[in-house]
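Problem statement: downstream parser choked on a complex file, so we are re-checking the raw output for the zinc ion run. The parser issue turned out to be on our end (a line-ending mismatch), but while we're here, posting the original submission so the record is complete.
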Amino acid sequence: MKASFVFGPKDVRTIETTDPSIGKPDDVIIRIQACGVCPFDIRIYEGLFLPYTPCPIGHEISGIVVEVGEDVQSLKTGDKVAVDAIWRCNSCYYCRRGADNLCERRKGPLPNGFAEYFKMPEKYMHKLPDSVALDEAALCEPLACCINAIEKIYDIQLGDSVLVVGSGPIGLMFVQLLNNMGVRAIVSEPLEFRREKALELGAEEAIDPTKVDIVEKVKSLTDGKGANAVIMTFLGESVFHQALNASAKRGTIVFFAAAYPPIKLSFDPNIIHHKEIALVGIEGRTANHFAQAVRLLSAGKMKLNKIISHRFPLDQIKEAIETAKSRNGLKVIVEPWGK
Ligand SMILES: [Zn+2]
Ligand SMILES: [Zn+2]
């Protein structure tokens, strides 16, 4: 089969490699229909995180089951699936306390979703109803990470307000999730087409932070109180200070994005103390968050097709990654077999 690997910084190639085959009785092999390009893939491609070469890339995977091992019960050939492509040991300290996103023993290899076929055990494959499109299903993984973030907002009630910083693919997922929850989404985004998309998908306001004072605007929209949570889909010194000042009392500031290269933040901790602000980090998603994402998508509650802007074949993996990096579009997906 064909599969893409990173051979060194900015050197990504699609090569011929061996087809996966059933090895263990719980193995499932799928034909990959779609795989999303994620900032994590860009980091590997740029060489910022390149543990070994050739390094497999692509973890936002959906497909159709083509073969199952003899013990597989929940899936059969022809089923549509979304793949929770991260190994969890299920027996370490963190797995046992329900935080399997922080598993200390991720046994398996890095996933290779930019490929024609893919194999993983049954427990990582989530069956989808026929009504779900497989290009949208590939986005279950980032959606599950957003659900992880929503769950960590410590005081949120119906009719509350959340400031979403950035309306790229992730910010637009947050807008839809907040709408589903009966929470007002206020978006801060410098790019006009992304602001328009946020409004189309249900944001109450989409503000240009290069022209408008975000803190004042958020306060004016919330009776002077501020946002009950601020979700930073990208991170920077000024974004963080805006978040602190735009936050209501008992607000949660969510560090959704990693900062590469690393940055330093300095701030007056008294503001955390007096306003009872919580600062929370988000690392991936648990198996439970992934299952929630699958249910939400299966129930028709998310319009993920609205945030897919580009589609590429496997042979154009470099263009796919460069397009995602350029921020000229929204979500970029690779479709090894075409649409
Ligand atoms: Zn991802
Ligand atoms: Zn574990």
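For whoever reads this later: The CA atoms of residues 1 and 18 lie 6 Å apart.
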